[in-house]
Structures are given as C-alpha cells and as structure tokens.
Amino acid sequence: MSGKEPDLAAISPDILSALQACVGTERVFTDAVSFEHYGRDWTRVHTPAPLAVVLPGSAGEVQALVRLALAHKLALVPSGGRTGLSAGAVAHNGEVVVALDRLDDITDFNPVDRTVRCGAGVITAQLQAFAADQGFFYPVDFASSGSSQIGGNISTNAGGIKVIRHGMTRDWVAGLKIVTGSGELLDLNRGLVKNNAGYDLRQLVIGAEGTLGIVVEATMRLDRPPKDLAVLVLGTPDMKAVMQVLETYQGAMDLQAFEFFSELALQKVVVHQGLQRPFATPAEFYALLEFEQHSDADMEQAMALFEHCVEQGWVVDGVVSQSVAQAQSLWRLREDISETISRWTPYKNDISTTIARVPEFLAEVEAVVSASYPEFEIVWFGHIGDGNVHLNVLKPDTLPMAEFQQRCGEVSRWVFEIVQRYEGSISAEHGVGLLKKDYLHYSRSELEIQMMRQIKKVFDPQGIMNPGKIFDL
Fold it and tell me: Total structural domains in the chain?
C-alpha cells in the first residue's frame, strides 16, 4: 500500500468553515468512513487520505470550491461513481474530494435533436432508463452502468460492450459544461451537430480524467432503440478463428456487439455465478455476437454465416438466443466475469492494438506471462470488435499480496513493451490515473506528453485539478 493514513485533525477550522460556506455544513465530511467511501475507486493500491469530502449541488458551488482551493492552495479530486480501475479518482495525498452525486438532474429532453441535458452525477443506468421511457436509446453500456456516473464516463471516455456499433462516450457528448482550474465555467459546443468555429475544446476535456477541470453538466445524444436483439455465442479453437468469425459476420451484418472470453473465464463464471455452459463442447475462446432482427431474413443470414464458419473450422459449436431471457443469460457469461474473478484480486490490464493484429498481440502477451509465472492463471475477455482485450492475472491463494503486486509490476513492463511494439495503447478505456502514468511513454511520445502538460497549464494554471494523475507536472 502507498499513500498515508487519513489525519482527521489535519483540516484547520478556517478551511472547514470555508468549505461549509461553499456547499453547506451538512455537505462536508471529515470522517474516516466518508474518506474510505469517497476517496478511492475500485483500485485498492493506494490508501485514501483526503483532507475533506464535499458534495456541491450546483455548478456555482463547484466554482466557489475551485476559487477557495486557489486561495488556500488546496488540491481537488473530482469523484463520480468511483468505478474506475486506474486510480484516477483516488485522493491519497490530502486533497479535497469533490463528489458530484448531487448533480443528478435530467432536463431539457429534445426529441427533435435527440438530446437530453444531464448533471455530472446522473448514473449511467438512469440515463439509459430515461431514454427508454422517451422511446429512445443511450447506447454506451458496461458492467458498472448501475453505479458509474455520466461525469466520470466523460472524464474517462468510457467505452464498453457496444463500441463496435456505437463508439465511445465522446461520440455521444453534444455539449459540455466544465469548471476549469481557474474557476471559470465553460459552455462547450452547446448541442450543435456542426461547429467548425475553431478548436473543439469539448474533445480535450473528454478523457482528461478531471485534470483540466470538473465536468458539471453534459448534453448527451440519444439514438433510436434497437429492434429485437438476438445473441449468438460461438466456440472457437483459437484467437485467429475469432477474428475470422468477426470478419465474416461484420462483412454481412451490422453487429451491435462482438465480445470474446476464454475457456477459463467461462469456467469461473459457470462455477461461481450458477450459470449454465452455452453448449457442451469446450472451446479455447468464445465469441458473443449481438444483432438486430428486423425480419426473419436477419436470423436466416446469421445461421447461414454460422454454418459457413463451422465448415471452415472456425467454429466448433454455438447457440443462439430464443427469447429475451435467454439473451440476458448468454450476456451474463461475458458481463459477470469481472465480478466473478474479483475474489482472486486480479492484476488487470486493458490494452489495445489494431483489430487485425489482436491474435498475435494476445499470444505474445500470454506467452511472456505464462513463461515467467506458470503458476498464475490468466483470464482473457474483452471487446474484440474494437481491438480492446482485458488481461486478468489471478492471484494464487497462497501468494502474499505484496509479492503478487511486485511480480505484476514486472508483468506490466513486459506487457507494455509488447504494446509499444504493436503501436497500441496501455489503456484502451480505463484511463491512466495513478496506476499507469509511469508507463504513459509506451503509448505517447515525449512531445505528446509535453504538449499535454502545456494544455493542462492553460486549463489549470495552478495545478489543483486532480494532480498527479496521467502525468506529473
């Protein structure tokens, strides 16, 4: 563990009173329980040690907090649903946590523009439900949609299971309001579809992990709802066959999703979630495809492609959903993996390369880890349709955590050297945060990193916004 233990006496009465004046007495917390709850994300490497936790209720209160932070040289850590996996929302060095839970209004729904305005604290599933109630669809989806917040999704440019069809979060942000490190409120793009009037600062903020400012509101685009979704799970003999299946189906159909997982991942989920195997025949890897059924012809096409893949030796067995309930059960085989393997405290890496290079990329990564640590179990899954794979190394029960983390540090270096050779990314969708900043140079040139630092100084001249995340100034 790193960081320091919270010192509840560290905050001065003057600072405490000033924070309370900004957001209200009942919205400032300095107790250990609040520090533990609000001071970290899903990572457990750093001990949370904030100075205080505050819950503003408006953009104006966020501005007041930033101005207070500037006057007293306080650091601020924006906090959303705290579901991140790179320690981007961790406050471990006496920062003030700005939790955005109260900014949860959904307003200004516009069916013509297909947009809706959301506070940063709106939970992803709430936006999805709101869109459905209006006859529309918000397509960005992932396992943590029930607790992640829109502001956090924007700050990490969240991806998930629908990227192959609908893209990343940035593709759905029509407008954005952000409080900068100078306390200014920027209203960016204002819902426009076409706007070539200079630089699009909105896109700089998306994926910046709160280092440029605090997202307080967003205008989000909506889509038409998909029609009669069907799910197909196919067993394949190797990763190359998975890519052949992807090429075959993508060349003939518009896929909503194309996911993959390994046999070990399936075994873990079946045992610990009480699910059934999709079919009796074991396979090295499994592909999960989702597609719309506009007519019977769509299912006929999917089955014809399935038969072709079997004939080519790319698929050993498969199953297609016959009902909504069965489709949901098949999705659980993929979506329940993260929850299932959490009991082994896995070392996780979300990495990417171009789609065509994934089989060789994955094979190299697995070979280097397996050769050095044959006792480690490796679980693979991911969004193979967009080149993003998730490496999960499970901690053996008898191995002390400290030794496991030390060994995984070696794994990271080896993995990222492979990422660099394949011109890929050390973080496909989870962000950089604290955990990956030492490896940023594997994906970004020194010139790029220097330009990022310069951009941060424009938005955040005093360096108070989520300091130490992505890179050090």
Answer: 4
